[in-house]
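Can't paste images in this forum, so I'm doing it all in text. The chain is below; anyone willing to post the predicted structure tokens underneath?
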Amino acid sequence: DERAWQFIEQFTEQWLDLGAVNRVAINPEYYPDFNDALKDEMRSETKHFFAEILRADVSALAFLDSDFAMLNSTLARHYGISGPQGMRFERTPLDEDGKRGGVLTQGAFLLGNSEGSDSHPIKRAVWIRTRLLDDAPSPPNVPSLDTADPNFAKLSVRRQLELHRTDPVCADCHRGIDPWGIALEEFGADGLLRDQILRKELVGDDYKEFHVPVSTETTLPSGTHLSNVSDLKQFLMDHERERFARTLTSRLLS
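Text version of the structure:
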């Protein structure tokens, strides 16, 4: 029934907060090749992914990791994946050794939880805990990251967050949040894989561009060490499938 699409569209928008994509303005100084038209494609990717799981009776655990994506030619070209030739979204197999698969590697999540010029590991972490694990953190009002240090921009995101945690007001909360987002640092705000992060530093009257290496090594509150997004997805599959199932069920019922 055509009305089934209304459910697919409305449920994914509410559960996964796909509208966040349009609340983020991609900074062309950091991502000059990004086309804003991709935002609609990214939202559609996640909707068609949900539709495929529903209609093909795929395990709901595919939201955590999958061996396929739902892509059209535009989005496939953006991601650097071969397959689709037209504008219709179709089930596209993924390489076994690739990083893609599941909602955590989809553009809607990665862009929607960014700041437009770079990723935002805290937003990504809160999204995972809230949307997938029904474990939303409740942080108090905490100060922003201290960027007064002239060397701050040269630090990796992980090191910046470590400095933030030296403030006892921030420490307890961030220990339970940050690692979930750090593991996803190999994806930029544009949803693409990267091994370096573009930074800008004010020198005199001009900004100087430089790059810092991506750092994804982290340890979850449970003590589990993660090296990258693949480890994060494997952890969710191995240890959080029950909590995810309960979260998805409660979201459907509500």
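The longest strand covers residues 196-203. The mean pLDDT is 89.
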